[in-house]
Amino acid sequence: IASTILFAISFVLVIAVYVIYWKGPVLRARSPFAQQLHAAREESGGRRMSYVTYGGSRSGSYAGRKSSSGGMPGLGPRQQSYAQKRLAELEKEQKEKEEE
After folding, report:
1. Per-residue pLDDT, 95
2. Angular region, 76: left φ>0, alpha ψ -120 to 50, beta rest
3. Is the dihedral of CA 56, 59, 44, 31 positive or negative?
4. pLDDT tens per residue, the chain (100 residues)?
5. How far is CA 57 from the centre of its chain?
6. How large is the C-alpha radius of gyration of the chain?
7. Its pTM surpasses 0.85
8. What local confidence, expressed as pLDDT, does residue 4 receive?
């Protein structure tokens, strides 16, 4: 009975791949993300983009947030890494030594 269950699961998954392949153009036409990818590809002259800028409906989500300090959005005071803080401290110390 275990083999029958595994066969049924695998059969459904294999059929799903073919259905998605067959219905792909219809699914992409309805998908806002696929439409953004298509628009980005047209803007770049047909080249594939490594990212898509989110706007509109994603502007309030975590992916749509921008950080002013260059760190990860939503981390508050932990936005800068230890290395960035230490580098800033060393630069400050060096400027103070030069002024003396």
Report:
1. 86
2. left
3. negative
4. 999 999 999 999 999 999 989 998 888 888 888 888 888 888 776 665 555 555 555 555 555 455 554 545 555 555 566 677 777 888 888 888 888 7
5. 15
6. 25
7. no
8. 96
**Are 62 and 73 in contact, with CB atoms under 8 Å apart?**
yes
- Position 17, amino acid: V
Cα 88 from Cα 22, distance rounded (Å):
55
Phi/psi of residue 66, nearest 5 degrees: -115, 145
Burial per residue of 48-83, b for 16 or more beta-carbon CB atoms within 10 angstroms, e otherwise? eeeeeeeeeebeeeeeeeeeeeeeeeeeeeeebeee
3-state DSSP call for residue 85? helix
CA distance 59 to 25: 27
| In the block, residue with structure tokens 């791949």 | 17
